[in-house]
Each structure stands twice: as C-alpha cells, then as structure tokens.
C-alpha cells in the first residue's frame, strides 16, 4: 500500500504529536509504551499510551474502507518506516519515558500485533520478523544442550 505524501505526512505528524506529550527532561519518567492502532474501516490511526489515553489521531485516506487481508502487514510497513524516519530526525530524544519503551502496533481489541521499535538506554532496536525467525527453536536447542551437560 502506497500512501500519498499528504497521508504519510499526516502519519508522521500524528506520531510527533503523540510523543510531544513526553518531551522534556522531566525528573518524573513515565512508564508506558506508545500504541498505534490503524483502522481499515474508518481510515483512522489512533495513538495512545498504556492507560488507553489518546495521544493523537489522524485520518489516512488510503486506509478508509480498505478490504485486503494484508491490511495489518501493510500498515506495519508504513508505520515502521515513519517511526524509523522520526528516530533518525531525533524526534524521540529527550522523552520523559522510562526506558525501555516500545512503539507497538495493536488491533481493534488493543491486542499487540507486533512491536515496531524498542527504545533502550544503549541502543534502539528495530524489530524485524526476519531477525527473530527461528529464535525460539535456537533457544530451545541451546537450553536442551545446556541441560544435557
């Protein structure tokens, strides 16, 4: 799914607006993740925190009445690209969020679909399915080998 320049800019602005609530060097760091919920029926992108407090929302024209089974995967690609771009622009520097925190793609039931980005003290980890593929099997094999020794 390709978004128009206007829609993509709207997504970037919504994410910036959401994290702007946490800008500053506050002594009181909040514990929360940033949840992004795209809606294929209304075309809205809703962004909220762990307490389900709305931080931002925007309309994405291309998402309205989207009728593909791949909507979540395609929205994930767009949102991950936007988050990476904002990270490179230092939009997430000086946030009063306790690290680690994540940007999480959620469904209409607010259930996690995928973690888009994990921000930690040392580095930012961009999570990718290809990177994590087979990790469970490798850990199981390692544990089995360890227990046999």
Key phrases:
149 residues, alpha+beta, globular
In short:
The chain is built from 4 helices and 6 strands; from the N terminus they run αβββαβββαα. By secondary structure, the protein is of the alpha+beta class. The chain has one domain.
Helix-strand blueprint:
Blueprint lengths: L4 H16 L13 E5 L5 E5 L5 E6 L11 H18 L12 E6 L5 E8 L4 E2 L3 H4 L2 H14 L1
Parallel strand pairs: 1-4
Antiparallel strand pairs: 1-2, 2-3, 4-5, 5-6
Describe the structure.
The chain is α+β, with helices and mostly antiparallel strands. The protein has one domain (5-148). Helices cover 35% and strands 21% of the residues. The protein contains 4 helices and 6 strands. The chain has helices at 5-20, 71-88, 129-132, 135-148, and strands at residues 34-38, 44-48, 54-59, 101-106, 112-119, 124-125. The chain has a 6-stranded mixed sheet with strand order 3-2-1-4-5-6, covered by helices on one side. Helix 1 crosses helix 2. It starts with a helix and ends with a helix.
Structural class of the secondary elements? alpha+beta
> Strands of the biggest beta sheet: in what spatial order?
3-2-1-4-5-6
Number of DSSP E strands: 6
Report Rg: 17 Å
């Amino acid at each position: 799914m390709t978004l128009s320049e206007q829609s993509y800019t709207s997504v970037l602005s919504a994410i910036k607006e959401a994290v702007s609530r946490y800008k500053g060097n506050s002594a009181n760091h909040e514990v929360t993740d940033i949840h992004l919920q795209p809606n294929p029926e209304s075309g809205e992108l809703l962004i909220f925190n762990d307490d389900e407090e709305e931080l931002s929302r925007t309309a994405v024209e291309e998402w309205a009445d989207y009728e593909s089974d791949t909507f979540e995967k395609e929205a994930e690609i767009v949102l991950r690209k936007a988050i990476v771009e904002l990270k490179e622009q230092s939009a997430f520097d000086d946030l009063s969020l306790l690290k680690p925190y994540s940007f999480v793609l959620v469904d209409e039931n607010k259930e996690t679909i995928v973690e888009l980005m994990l921000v930690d003290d040392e580095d930012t980890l961009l999570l990718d399915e290809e990177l994590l593929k087979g990790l469970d099997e490798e850990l199981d094999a390692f544990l089995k080998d360890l227990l046999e020794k």
